[in-house]
Amino acid sequence: MSTAPVVGWDDVAAVAPDGLALVDGSGRFVQLNTAAVALCGGNAESALIGTQSPFELAEASTASQVGLLEDRSDEQVAHWTPVGGAQREFAYRARRLSADSSLIVVSFRDVTDEWHRHRRIAAIARTSIGLASEGSLGATLDAVAQQIVRTDGLAGVQILILDSTGHELRLLGSAGLRHWNVFLDRLLECRDRGARLCMLDAIREARSVVVPHRWTEISADPAWEPLHDYLGELSWDHFVSVPLLVRGRAEGVLNAYFAPDQEINGRTLEFLAAMAEQAALAVDYATLLQREREGARRDERQRLARDLHDSIVQQVFSIGMQANAAGVLGARGGQVPAHAVQRFAHEVGALSQTVLADLRAMVHELRPSSFSRLGLEEAVRALLRSTENRTGLACKMSFAKNLDALGPELAEDVYRITAEAIHNVVKHAEASTVAVRLVLRDHTLAATVSDDGIGLVTAAPESGPEEPPGSSESGGHGYGLITMRERAERWGGTLSIRSRSRRGTMVRAVIPLPVQLPEPVETEPSTETTAPHAVPL
Q1: pLDDT for position 474
Q2: Which conformational region is residue 199 in: left (phi greater than 0), alpha (psi within -120 to 50 degrees), or beta?
Q3: String of b and e for 465-490 (b: at least 16 CB within 10 Å)?
Q4: Which of these, 288, 296, 294, lies nearest to 416 by C-alpha position?
Q5: Is 281 exposed, middle or buried (CB count within 10 Å of its CB: 0-12, 13-18, 19+)?
Q6: Most confident listed range (115-129, 180-194, 349-363, 470-484)
Q7: Which residues does 518 contact at the CB level (< 8 Å), separation at least 6?
Q8: Which of 248, 320, 501, 508 is positioned for an S-S bond with 352, CB 3.0–4.6 A?
Protein backbone atom coordinates (compact mmCIF):
# COMPACT_ATOMS: atom_id res chain seq x y z
CA MET A 1 0.00 0.00 0.00
CA SER A 2 1.52 3.34 -0.99
CA THR A 3 0.82 6.71 0.51
CA ALA A 4 1.39 10.14 -0.93
CA PRO A 5 4.26 12.14 0.68
CA VAL A 6 3.18 14.60 3.33
CA VAL A 7 5.35 17.37 1.82
CA GLY A 8 7.49 17.66 -1.24
CA TRP A 9 11.27 17.21 -1.05
CA ASP A 10 11.74 20.76 -2.28
CA ASP A 11 9.99 21.99 0.85
CA VAL A 12 12.19 19.73 3.02
CA ALA A 13 15.40 20.96 1.39
CA ALA A 14 14.33 24.58 1.78
CA VAL A 15 14.16 24.31 5.60
CA ALA A 16 17.00 21.78 6.16
CA PRO A 17 19.44 23.09 8.81
CA ASP A 18 22.49 21.94 6.83
CA GLY A 19 23.52 23.33 3.49
CA LEU A 20 22.45 21.31 0.45
CA ALA A 21 23.92 22.10 -2.93
CA LEU A 22 23.70 20.57 -6.39
CA VAL A 23 27.06 20.78 -8.18
CA ASP A 24 27.93 19.91 -11.77
CA GLY A 25 30.90 17.83 -12.94
CA SER A 26 33.21 20.86 -13.08
CA GLY A 27 32.43 21.78 -9.48
CA ARG A 28 30.14 24.74 -10.14
CA PHE A 29 27.00 25.46 -8.16
CA VAL A 30 23.77 24.54 -9.95
CA GLN A 31 21.26 24.82 -7.12
CA LEU A 32 21.42 25.67 -3.38
CA ASN A 33 18.96 25.58 -0.51
CA THR A 34 18.45 28.49 1.87
CA ALA A 35 20.97 27.19 4.45
CA ALA A 36 23.63 26.74 1.76
CA VAL A 37 23.19 30.32 0.54
CA ALA A 38 23.54 31.60 4.12
CA LEU A 39 26.61 29.48 4.82
CA CYS A 40 28.31 30.75 1.67
CA GLY A 41 27.59 34.34 2.65
CA GLY A 42 25.40 35.06 -0.34
CA ASN A 43 22.33 37.27 -0.43
CA ALA A 44 20.54 35.20 -3.04
CA GLU A 45 20.86 31.81 -4.71
CA SER A 46 21.19 33.46 -8.11
CA ALA A 47 24.42 35.18 -7.04
CA LEU A 48 26.07 31.81 -6.38
CA ILE A 49 24.77 29.70 -9.26
CA GLY A 50 27.53 29.18 -11.81
CA THR A 51 30.35 30.07 -9.39
CA GLN A 52 33.03 27.56 -8.42
CA SER A 53 32.25 25.61 -5.28
CA PRO A 54 35.01 24.79 -2.73
CA PHE A 55 34.29 21.06 -2.74
CA GLU A 56 36.73 18.42 -4.00
CA LEU A 57 34.58 16.04 -6.02
CA ALA A 58 37.14 13.62 -7.48
CA GLU A 59 36.17 9.99 -7.26
CA ALA A 60 39.41 9.30 -5.36
CA SER A 61 38.51 11.76 -2.63
CA THR A 62 37.76 9.69 0.42
CA ALA A 63 37.85 10.39 4.12
CA SER A 64 41.17 9.36 5.65
CA GLN A 65 41.75 7.50 8.87
CA VAL A 66 42.35 9.81 11.81
CA GLY A 67 44.11 9.46 15.12
CA LEU A 68 42.73 10.11 18.57
CA LEU A 69 44.21 13.60 18.79
CA GLU A 70 43.68 14.58 15.15
CA ASP A 71 41.45 17.58 14.56
CA ARG A 72 39.52 16.22 11.55
CA SER A 73 36.36 14.15 11.54
CA ASP A 74 35.54 11.42 9.02
CA GLU A 75 34.02 14.09 6.75
CA GLN A 76 35.98 15.90 4.09
CA VAL A 77 36.87 19.52 4.64
CA ALA A 78 36.69 22.53 2.34
CA HIS A 79 37.65 26.17 2.87
CA TRP A 80 35.43 29.00 1.67
CA THR A 81 36.04 32.73 1.86
CA PRO A 82 32.87 34.77 1.22
CA VAL A 83 33.15 38.20 -0.31
CA GLY A 84 34.21 40.62 2.42
CA GLY A 85 34.29 37.90 5.07
CA ALA A 86 36.70 35.65 6.95
CA GLN A 87 37.63 32.17 5.77
CA ARG A 88 35.27 29.42 6.93
CA GLU A 89 35.68 25.64 7.16
CA PHE A 90 32.97 23.38 5.77
CA ALA A 91 32.64 19.69 6.59
CA TYR A 92 30.85 17.92 3.76
CA ARG A 93 29.77 14.66 2.14
CA ALA A 94 29.02 14.24 -1.56
CA ARG A 95 26.93 11.71 -3.53
CA ARG A 96 26.12 11.46 -7.26
CA LEU A 97 22.52 11.66 -8.36
CA SER A 98 21.25 8.29 -9.57
CA ALA A 99 18.96 10.01 -12.04
CA ASP A 100 21.77 12.15 -13.54
CA SER A 101 25.35 11.01 -12.82
CA SER A 102 26.74 14.34 -14.05
CA LEU A 103 25.29 16.09 -10.99
CA ILE A 104 26.46 15.72 -7.42
CA VAL A 105 24.56 16.47 -4.21
CA VAL A 106 26.68 17.98 -1.44
CA SER A 107 25.56 18.20 2.18
CA PHE A 108 27.74 20.58 4.22
CA ARG A 109 27.90 22.51 7.48
CA ASP A 110 30.09 25.22 9.01
CA VAL A 111 32.57 23.66 11.48
CA THR A 112 34.96 26.60 11.82
CA ASP A 113 34.37 27.23 15.54
CA GLU A 114 33.84 23.57 16.40
CA TRP A 115 37.07 22.38 14.81
CA HIS A 116 38.96 25.35 16.20
CA ARG A 117 37.88 24.19 19.65
CA HIS A 118 38.95 20.62 18.81
CA ARG A 119 42.35 21.87 17.67
CA ARG A 120 42.79 23.73 20.93
CA ILE A 121 41.96 20.62 22.94
CA ALA A 122 44.33 18.55 20.79
CA ALA A 123 47.07 21.16 21.24
CA ILE A 124 46.71 21.00 25.03
CA ALA A 125 46.77 17.19 24.90
CA ARG A 126 49.84 17.12 22.64
CA THR A 127 51.62 19.58 24.90
CA SER A 128 50.82 17.44 27.95
CA ILE A 129 52.25 14.41 26.17
CA GLY A 130 55.30 16.40 25.12
CA LEU A 131 56.06 17.34 28.72
CA ALA A 132 56.73 13.68 29.44
CA SER A 133 59.40 13.44 26.75
CA GLU A 134 63.04 14.02 27.54
CA GLY A 135 64.32 17.33 26.26
CA SER A 136 65.65 20.66 27.42
CA LEU A 137 63.29 23.20 28.95
CA GLY A 138 63.98 25.55 26.05
CA ALA A 139 62.95 22.93 23.49
CA THR A 140 59.79 22.14 25.48
CA LEU A 141 58.74 25.78 25.75
CA ASP A 142 59.49 26.32 22.06
CA ALA A 143 57.11 23.43 21.32
CA VAL A 144 54.41 24.99 23.53
CA ALA A 145 54.78 28.33 21.72
CA GLN A 146 54.63 26.62 18.32
CA GLN A 147 51.47 24.73 19.29
CA ILE A 148 49.76 28.00 20.24
CA VAL A 149 50.76 29.76 17.01
CA ARG A 150 49.80 26.79 14.87
CA THR A 151 46.44 26.25 16.62
CA ASP A 152 45.16 29.82 16.90
CA GLY A 153 47.07 31.42 14.03
CA LEU A 154 48.67 34.04 16.25
CA ALA A 155 51.40 36.29 14.90
CA GLY A 156 53.85 35.23 17.61
CA VAL A 157 54.33 33.89 21.13
CA GLN A 158 57.11 34.34 23.69
CA ILE A 159 57.59 32.43 26.94
CA LEU A 160 59.85 33.99 29.58
CA ILE A 161 60.70 32.48 32.95
CA LEU A 162 62.11 33.81 36.20
CA ASP A 163 65.31 32.48 37.72
CA SER A 164 65.43 30.85 41.16
CA THR A 165 65.73 34.27 42.87
CA GLY A 166 62.59 35.59 41.17
CA HIS A 167 64.41 38.74 40.05
CA GLU A 168 65.75 37.90 36.58
CA LEU A 169 63.91 37.02 33.37
CA ARG A 170 65.09 34.62 30.67
CA LEU A 171 63.51 34.16 27.23
CA LEU A 172 63.34 30.38 26.72
CA GLY A 173 60.51 29.74 24.25
CA SER A 174 59.22 31.54 21.17
CA ALA A 175 57.43 31.04 17.87
CA GLY A 176 56.73 33.45 15.05
CA LEU A 177 59.43 35.89 16.18
CA ARG A 178 63.01 35.91 14.95
CA HIS A 179 65.57 34.71 17.49
CA TRP A 180 67.50 37.76 18.70
CA ASN A 181 70.06 37.43 21.49
CA VAL A 182 69.79 41.08 22.55
CA PHE A 183 65.97 41.22 22.74
CA LEU A 184 65.91 41.39 26.53
CA ASP A 185 68.69 43.95 26.52
CA ARG A 186 66.69 46.17 24.18
CA LEU A 187 63.59 45.59 26.28
CA LEU A 188 65.47 46.89 29.32
CA GLU A 189 66.55 49.90 27.30
CA CYS A 190 62.90 50.62 26.45
CA ARG A 191 61.98 50.35 30.13
CA ASP A 192 64.77 52.76 31.08
CA ARG A 193 63.41 55.20 28.48
CA GLY A 194 60.03 55.13 30.23
CA ALA A 195 58.20 52.34 28.38
CA ARG A 196 55.73 50.34 30.43
CA LEU A 197 56.22 46.57 30.31
CA CYS A 198 52.77 45.05 30.70
CA MET A 199 54.20 41.57 31.27
CA LEU A 200 55.69 42.80 34.56
CA ASP A 201 52.15 43.61 35.72
CA ALA A 202 51.09 40.08 34.80
CA ILE A 203 53.98 38.64 36.85
CA ARG A 204 53.65 40.91 39.88
CA GLU A 205 49.86 40.71 40.10
CA ALA A 206 49.56 37.06 38.94
CA ARG A 207 46.80 37.95 36.48
CA SER A 208 46.37 38.00 32.73
CA VAL A 209 46.65 41.38 31.01
CA VAL A 210 44.95 42.17 27.71
CA VAL A 211 46.04 45.28 25.79
CA PRO A 212 43.96 46.12 22.70
CA HIS A 213 45.82 47.72 19.77
CA ARG A 214 49.14 47.40 21.56
CA TRP A 215 51.24 47.67 18.39
CA THR A 216 49.57 50.98 17.54
CA GLU A 217 50.63 52.29 20.96
CA ILE A 218 54.18 50.91 20.77
CA SER A 219 54.85 52.09 17.22
CA ALA A 220 53.84 55.63 18.18
CA ASP A 221 55.81 55.70 21.45
CA PRO A 222 59.44 56.92 21.15
CA ALA A 223 60.30 55.05 24.36
CA TRP A 224 59.92 51.80 22.38
CA GLU A 225 62.22 52.95 19.57
CA PRO A 226 64.93 50.29 20.29
CA LEU A 227 62.37 47.58 19.49
CA HIS A 228 60.39 49.26 16.71
CA ASP A 229 62.20 47.48 13.88
CA TYR A 230 62.18 44.07 15.59
CA LEU A 231 58.52 44.11 16.64
CA GLY A 232 57.62 45.69 13.30
CA GLU A 233 58.73 42.50 11.55
CA LEU A 234 55.49 40.93 12.84
CA SER A 235 52.06 41.72 11.52
CA TRP A 236 50.17 42.09 14.82
CA ASP A 237 47.80 44.29 16.78
CA HIS A 238 46.48 43.15 20.20
CA PHE A 239 48.68 41.81 23.01
CA VAL A 240 47.97 39.40 25.87
CA SER A 241 50.32 38.53 28.74
CA VAL A 242 49.47 35.45 30.84
CA PRO A 243 51.45 34.54 33.99
CA LEU A 244 52.89 31.05 34.45
CA LEU A 245 51.57 30.13 37.89
CA VAL A 246 53.21 27.42 39.99
CA ARG A 247 51.53 26.84 43.36
CA GLY A 248 50.06 30.33 43.24
CA ARG A 249 53.35 32.07 42.41
CA ALA A 250 54.23 33.55 39.02
CA GLU A 251 57.30 31.77 37.65
CA GLY A 252 57.23 33.43 34.24
CA VAL A 253 54.95 34.84 31.59
CA LEU A 254 53.48 33.90 28.21
CA ASN A 255 53.21 36.80 25.75
CA ALA A 256 50.80 36.43 22.82
CA TYR A 257 50.88 38.73 19.78
CA PHE A 258 47.58 38.66 17.86
CA ALA A 259 47.37 39.07 14.12
CA PRO A 260 45.32 42.02 12.83
CA ASP A 261 41.55 41.43 12.86
CA GLN A 262 41.91 38.50 15.29
CA GLU A 263 39.37 38.71 18.10
CA ILE A 264 40.13 38.12 21.77
CA ASN A 265 37.26 36.48 23.59
CA GLY A 266 36.72 34.32 26.65
CA ARG A 267 37.56 31.09 24.85
CA THR A 268 40.79 32.59 23.52
CA LEU A 269 41.91 33.61 27.00
CA GLU A 270 40.85 30.24 28.38
CA PHE A 271 43.02 28.48 25.78
CA LEU A 272 46.02 30.72 26.49
CA ALA A 273 45.60 30.13 30.23
CA ALA A 274 45.53 26.36 29.65
CA MET A 275 48.69 26.48 27.54
CA ALA A 276 50.36 28.77 30.11
CA GLU A 277 49.51 26.15 32.73
CA GLN A 278 51.24 23.51 30.59
CA ALA A 279 54.29 25.76 30.27
CA ALA A 280 54.27 26.34 34.04
CA LEU A 281 54.23 22.58 34.63
CA ALA A 282 57.26 22.23 32.37
CA VAL A 283 59.09 24.99 34.27
CA ASP A 284 58.20 23.45 37.62
CA TYR A 285 59.28 19.99 36.51
CA ALA A 286 62.57 21.31 35.12
CA THR A 287 63.22 23.27 38.32
CA LEU A 288 62.59 20.28 40.56
CA LEU A 289 64.68 18.04 38.33
CA GLN A 290 67.51 20.57 38.26
CA ARG A 291 67.49 20.86 42.04
CA GLU A 292 67.54 17.11 42.42
CA ARG A 293 70.40 16.73 39.96
CA GLU A 294 72.39 19.56 41.51
CA GLY A 295 71.91 18.10 44.98
CA ALA A 296 73.04 14.66 43.82
CA ARG A 297 76.03 16.14 41.98
CA ARG A 298 77.00 18.27 44.97
CA ASP A 299 76.82 15.36 47.39
CA GLU A 300 78.79 13.12 45.04
CA ARG A 301 81.46 15.73 44.39
CA GLN A 302 81.90 16.40 48.07
CA ARG A 303 82.14 12.69 48.82
CA LEU A 304 84.68 12.11 46.05
CA ALA A 305 86.72 15.14 47.07
CA ARG A 306 86.78 13.98 50.69
CA ASP A 307 87.69 10.40 49.78
CA LEU A 308 90.42 11.46 47.38
CA HIS A 309 91.95 13.85 49.85
CA ASP A 310 91.75 11.58 52.90
CA SER A 311 93.00 8.40 51.25
CA ILE A 312 94.66 8.44 47.83
CA VAL A 313 96.36 11.83 48.10
CA GLN A 314 97.73 10.98 51.55
CA GLN A 315 99.02 7.62 50.34
CA VAL A 316 100.71 9.04 47.28
CA PHE A 317 102.28 11.72 49.43
CA SER A 318 103.70 8.96 51.64
CA ILE A 319 105.19 7.30 48.58
CA GLY A 320 106.95 10.54 47.78
CA MET A 321 108.31 10.76 51.31
CA GLN A 322 109.59 7.19 51.11
CA ALA A 323 111.24 7.93 47.79
CA ASN A 324 113.00 10.92 49.35
CA ALA A 325 114.16 8.77 52.25
CA ALA A 326 115.47 6.14 49.87
CA GLY A 327 117.33 8.84 48.01
CA VAL A 328 118.96 10.05 51.21
CA LEU A 329 119.91 6.49 52.10
CA GLY A 330 121.41 5.85 48.71
CA ALA A 331 123.39 9.08 48.89
CA ARG A 332 125.25 7.81 51.99
CA GLY A 333 126.86 4.91 50.10
CA GLY A 334 127.17 1.56 51.79
CA GLN A 335 126.05 -1.85 50.63
CA VAL A 336 123.13 -0.52 48.56
CA PRO A 337 124.38 0.92 45.28
CA ALA A 338 123.86 4.62 45.44
CA HIS A 339 122.93 5.03 41.80
CA ALA A 340 120.21 2.39 42.05
CA VAL A 341 118.63 4.02 45.07
CA GLN A 342 118.87 7.46 43.51
CA ARG A 343 117.28 6.23 40.29
CA PHE A 344 114.47 4.64 42.30
CA ALA A 345 113.97 7.82 44.28
CA HIS A 346 113.85 9.93 41.12
CA GLU A 347 111.34 7.69 39.38
CA VAL A 348 109.04 7.27 42.37
CA GLY A 349 109.25 10.96 43.21
CA ALA A 350 108.43 12.03 39.65
CA LEU A 351 105.53 9.58 39.53
CA SER A 352 104.15 10.73 42.85
CA GLN A 353 104.34 14.38 41.82
CA THR A 354 102.47 13.64 38.59
CA VAL A 355 99.78 11.67 40.41
CA LEU A 356 99.45 14.35 43.09
CA ALA A 357 99.02 17.10 40.50
CA ASP A 358 96.43 15.04 38.66
CA LEU A 359 94.47 14.19 41.79
CA ARG A 360 94.58 17.74 43.08
CA ALA A 361 93.13 18.88 39.76
CA MET A 362 90.35 16.32 40.16
CA VAL A 363 89.61 17.54 43.68
CA HIS A 364 89.60 21.14 42.41
CA GLU A 365 87.21 20.27 39.58
CA LEU A 366 84.89 18.19 41.74
CA ARG A 367 84.61 20.72 44.56
CA PRO A 368 81.32 22.54 43.80
CA SER A 369 82.21 25.71 45.68
CA SER A 370 85.46 26.50 43.83
CA PHE A 371 84.01 29.10 41.50
CA SER A 372 81.89 30.65 44.25
CA ARG A 373 84.99 31.10 46.40
CA LEU A 374 87.26 32.32 43.63
CA GLY A 375 84.89 33.92 41.16
CA LEU A 376 84.41 32.72 37.59
CA GLU A 377 87.58 34.28 36.17
CA GLU A 378 89.90 33.02 38.92
CA ALA A 379 88.28 29.57 38.87
CA VAL A 380 88.94 29.24 35.13
CA ARG A 381 92.49 30.57 35.58
CA ALA A 382 93.14 27.98 38.29
CA LEU A 383 91.76 25.24 36.05
CA LEU A 384 94.03 26.31 33.18
CA ARG A 385 97.11 26.50 35.43
CA SER A 386 96.35 23.01 36.71
CA THR A 387 95.91 21.78 33.14
CA GLU A 388 99.27 23.25 32.14
CA ASN A 389 101.01 21.60 35.09
CA ARG A 390 99.44 18.22 34.46
CA THR A 391 99.66 18.00 30.69
CA GLY A 392 102.24 20.49 29.43
CA LEU A 393 99.52 22.01 27.24
CA ALA A 394 100.10 25.72 26.55
CA CYS A 395 97.05 27.61 27.80
CA LYS A 396 96.06 31.09 26.58
CA MET A 397 93.27 33.03 28.20
CA SER A 398 91.31 36.25 27.70
CA PHE A 399 88.61 37.49 30.06
CA ALA A 400 86.10 40.32 29.90
CA LYS A 401 85.70 42.71 32.80
CA ASN A 402 82.90 42.29 35.35
CA LEU A 403 82.63 38.52 34.96
CA ASP A 404 82.28 38.24 38.72
CA ALA A 405 78.99 40.16 38.44
CA LEU A 406 77.36 37.05 36.95
CA GLY A 407 74.94 35.18 39.20
CA PRO A 408 76.31 32.05 40.91
CA GLU A 409 74.12 29.61 38.94
CA LEU A 410 75.05 31.09 35.57
CA ALA A 411 78.73 31.30 36.61
CA GLU A 412 78.73 27.61 37.53
CA ASP A 413 77.20 26.60 34.20
CA VAL A 414 79.72 28.69 32.24
CA TYR A 415 82.56 27.19 34.30
CA ARG A 416 81.29 23.63 33.70
CA ILE A 417 80.93 24.24 29.95
CA THR A 418 84.48 25.61 29.82
CA ALA A 419 85.88 22.78 31.96
CA GLU A 420 84.21 20.09 29.83
CA ALA A 421 85.55 21.67 26.63
CA ILE A 422 89.08 21.78 28.07
CA HIS A 423 88.75 18.16 29.22
CA ASN A 424 87.82 17.15 25.66
CA VAL A 425 90.88 18.97 24.30
CA VAL A 426 93.17 17.10 26.73
CA LYS A 427 91.51 13.75 26.06
CA HIS A 428 90.97 13.81 22.29
CA ALA A 429 92.56 16.73 20.46
CA GLU A 430 96.30 15.90 20.63
CA ALA A 431 96.78 19.66 20.73
CA SER A 432 99.74 21.74 21.87
CA THR A 433 97.74 24.89 22.67
CA VAL A 434 94.28 25.68 24.00
CA ALA A 435 92.77 29.18 24.15
CA VAL A 436 89.87 30.27 26.37
CA ARG A 437 87.97 33.54 25.82
CA LEU A 438 85.09 34.84 27.91
CA VAL A 439 83.56 37.94 26.30
CA LEU A 440 80.68 40.19 27.38
CA ARG A 441 79.04 42.23 24.63
CA ASP A 442 75.50 43.60 24.15
CA HIS A 443 74.23 41.92 27.32
CA THR A 444 75.43 38.56 25.95
CA LEU A 445 78.17 36.27 27.24
CA ALA A 446 80.26 34.32 24.72
CA ALA A 447 82.54 31.55 26.02
CA THR A 448 84.96 30.09 23.45
CA VAL A 449 87.43 27.22 23.85
CA SER A 450 89.64 26.55 20.80
CA ASP A 451 92.63 24.32 20.16
CA ASP A 452 95.17 23.52 17.43
CA GLY A 453 94.64 19.78 17.54
CA ILE A 454 93.72 17.14 15.00
CA GLY A 455 90.06 18.14 14.82
CA LEU A 456 86.94 16.08 15.37
CA VAL A 457 86.85 14.72 11.81
CA THR A 458 90.20 13.02 12.27
CA ALA A 459 89.54 12.07 15.87
CA ALA A 460 86.05 10.69 15.28
CA PRO A 461 87.01 7.01 14.96
CA GLU A 462 88.76 7.17 18.33
CA SER A 463 86.52 9.59 20.22
CA GLY A 464 83.53 7.32 20.48
CA PRO A 465 80.05 8.85 20.50
CA GLU A 466 81.20 12.39 21.13
CA GLU A 467 80.97 13.29 17.42
CA PRO A 468 79.53 11.55 14.36
CA PRO A 469 82.19 10.55 11.85
CA GLY A 470 82.68 13.03 9.05
CA SER A 471 80.96 15.90 10.83
CA SER A 472 82.62 19.31 10.74
CA GLU A 473 79.93 21.07 12.75
CA SER A 474 78.38 18.76 15.25
CA GLY A 475 75.19 18.91 17.21
CA GLY A 476 76.93 17.03 20.03
CA HIS A 477 75.86 13.40 20.49
CA GLY A 478 78.19 12.43 23.37
CA TYR A 479 77.12 12.76 26.98
CA GLY A 480 79.64 15.54 27.68
CA LEU A 481 78.54 17.64 24.71
CA ILE A 482 74.86 17.04 25.48
CA THR A 483 75.44 18.25 29.03
CA MET A 484 77.22 21.36 27.72
CA ARG A 485 74.35 22.11 25.36
CA GLU A 486 71.77 21.62 28.13
CA ARG A 487 73.65 24.05 30.37
CA ALA A 488 73.64 26.71 27.60
CA GLU A 489 69.98 26.14 26.68
CA ARG A 490 68.99 26.43 30.34
CA TRP A 491 69.68 30.17 29.97
CA GLY A 492 68.20 30.51 26.48
CA GLY A 493 71.64 30.23 24.88
CA THR A 494 73.19 28.11 22.15
CA LEU A 495 76.23 25.86 21.82
CA SER A 496 78.06 25.43 18.52
CA ILE A 497 81.05 23.26 17.64
CA ARG A 498 83.24 23.81 14.58
CA SER A 499 86.10 21.56 13.60
CA ARG A 500 88.39 21.07 10.62
CA SER A 501 90.67 18.13 10.09
CA ARG A 502 94.17 18.88 11.41
CA ARG A 503 93.17 22.49 12.04
CA GLY A 504 91.67 22.24 15.50
CA THR A 505 88.26 22.60 17.08
CA MET A 506 86.29 25.54 18.47
CA VAL A 507 83.50 25.19 21.04
CA ARG A 508 81.42 28.35 21.49
CA ALA A 509 78.58 28.98 23.95
CA VAL A 510 76.52 32.16 23.50
CA ILE A 511 74.25 33.00 26.42
CA PRO A 512 72.00 36.09 26.72
CA LEU A 513 72.31 37.45 30.25
CA PRO A 514 69.18 37.41 32.43
CA VAL A 515 67.29 40.66 32.81
CA GLN A 516 67.10 42.18 36.27
CA LEU A 517 63.50 42.95 37.17
CA PRO A 518 62.79 46.40 38.63
CA GLU A 519 61.55 46.74 42.17
CA PRO A 520 57.74 47.04 42.42
CA VAL A 521 56.56 50.64 42.35
CA GLU A 522 53.20 52.20 42.91
CA THR A 523 51.45 52.95 39.61
CA GLU A 524 48.23 54.54 38.55
CA PRO A 525 45.25 52.16 38.26
CA SER A 526 45.49 50.20 35.02
CA THR A 527 43.03 50.87 32.24
CA GLU A 528 43.90 47.59 30.55
CA THR A 529 41.41 44.78 30.29
CA THR A 530 42.07 41.83 32.62
CA ALA A 531 41.17 38.25 31.97
CA PRO A 532 38.28 37.91 34.47
CA HIS A 533 36.55 40.88 32.88
CA ALA A 534 37.63 40.32 29.26
CA VAL A 535 35.02 40.83 26.58
CA PRO A 536 35.15 40.27 22.81
CA LEU A 537 36.85 43.19 21.11
Answers
A1: 42
A2: alpha
A3: ebbeeeeeebebebeebbebbbbbbb
A4: 294
A5: middle
A6: 180-194
A7: 191, 200
A8: 320
Average pLDDT over residues 224-233: 95
Binning the chain into helix, strand and coil, the percentages to the nearest 5 are: 45, 20, 35
pLDDT tens for each residue of 23-82: 998 999 999 998 999 888 877 888 889 999 999 876 534 444 444 444 445 678 888 888
The residues facing 254 across adjacent strands are: 159, 242
Query: What CA–CA distance (Å, rounded) separates 244 from 199?
Result: 11
- CA-CA distance, 388 to 391, in Å (whole number)? 5
Helices 408-424 & 479-489 angle (0-180, nearest 10): 150
In degrees rounded to 5, what are phi and psi of residue 311? Answer: -120, -70
Q: How far is Cα 335 from Cα 524, in angstroms, rounded to an integer?
A: 97
- 3-state SS string for 224-240: HHHHHHHHHCCCCCCEE
SS3 473: strand
Q: State the Cα–Cα distance between residues 492 and 240, nearest whole angstrom.
A: 22
